Amino acid sequence: MNVLIVHAHPEPQSFCSAICTRAHARFRAQGHQVRVSDLYASGFNPVAGPDDFLERQDPDYLVYALEQRHAYEGGTLAPDIRAEVAKLLWCDLLVLNFPLYWCSVPAILKGWLDRVLISGLVYGGKRFYDRGGMAGKQALVTLTLGGPAHLFTPDGVHGPLDEMLRPLLRGTLGYAGFDVMPPWFGWHVPYASPAQREALLEAHQRHLDALAQMQPLRMPRLDAFDERLYPRSPLSA
Amino acid sequence: MNVLIVHAHPEPQSFCSAICTRAHARFRAQGHQVRVSDLYASGFNPVAGPDDFLERQDPDYLVYALEQRHAYEGGTLAPDIRAEVAKLLWCDLLVLNFPLYWCSVPAILKGWLDRVLISGLVYGGKRFYDRGGMAGKQALVTLTLGGPAHLFTPDGVHGPLDEMLRPLLRGTLGYAGFDVMPPWFGWHVPYASPAQREALLEAHQRHLDALAQMQPLRMPRLDAFDERLYPRSPLSA
Fold first, then answer.
1. How far apart are CA A14 and CA A215, in angstroms?
2. What is the pLDDT of residues B69-83, one digit of tens each?
3. Is A133 on the interface with B (CB under 8 A)?
4. B138 located within any domain
5. Model confidence at A237: pLDDT above 60
6. A-proximal residues of B, 140-169, CB under 8 Å
7. Is residue B213 situated within a structural domain?
8. Can you give the residue range of the structural domain that contains A183?
9. What is the CATH number of the domain that holds B9?
10. Which SUPFAM superfamilies does the record match to this protein (chains A, B) (predicted)?
């Protein structure tokens, strides 16, 4: 299996960065090929904008998704995007590894999603969810956060973390067609004792080792919807 | 009322940018003071990192939130952050205006949230939700998107858009203490006829005009939780 880890933490010595290193080693030990896009280390530019295209279909008015499609077809995507798209196409498993910032990904990783998951390849028209461009690939979210798990239970103060991650797990990765594997959460990291950190590292490894036995999260299937994407009635199905 | 509009669209001629311009004019007409942070126009840097602090509490190991707190207290935040924090403190109403990218904010706006909503001022310790640092201020999300409304009904293919926006509405704005007003969505924008766009502009204006009569979204209240943030039982309340 080819594994692409997209990692986004500003501190190379952080626990989150250790999780990236451990994942790299573990996937290699399992016999997989691994590549890492370390967004902070490479100084990745996260801002989707006009400079993302070496040539414009419409130089006077930017419709970002249309220019993505045009540039992908014409081979005129900016080189940094092209390099990431090549890795995305190469991988069988995409791992996003990051610290939770505002119940979401850090901006540098959001920009990777904005600029690399391009229209015309990853999605477009009716190509989404089970018909998305990334169908056949897996995606895995592994993240670290400051809060303890009990804040994110159904009756916890924030509610389930999966619900906070809905735009990422479903609205992005599921939409793009990935089989979205159950995410792994490293809770309460800044407050963890050395023994607790070790336990987290072990739990992370067990999660990676169990991946092949896990079922992906449930996502919508487009055959439940008609041509205009209205839900089909159960009787007409 | 002081209104800060944070706007994030790469095309100044876009419908989303027109919404920003219209909001500016409408709030002025209502007698409010208005400032706009146009993130693309100013070339805002969205990447949270070590350069955000003129002086470091710990130069060898970056804990971003701790350095935010330290730099806010010591007046050593990077100038671009300090300027945005001043606008944030000045405003009574924060408006986030953006095109929906992957069911979320564009990276440049995510970076504004990551870098400007600083620990020690906006949140920290038990200062969140109704005790958050932004308590007493209002926040409003106005966004444009490509999809039509029927994709985002409860039985629509994506489910309710509010649920996709949970990390922003609740996990960020609600968490920070804002009264989060009902968001406004400009549906199906790239496919709208001129008449439909005019109708959207009018709907947007009606939304702004009705803001004073609206109730904010429901958010958790910390008095429903104990000192360790476990839910209090109804009997002990």
1. 30
2. 999 999 999 999 999
3. no
4. yes
5. no
6. 146, 150-151, 155-159, 163-168
7. yes
8. 2-224
9. 3.40.50.360
10. Flavoproteins
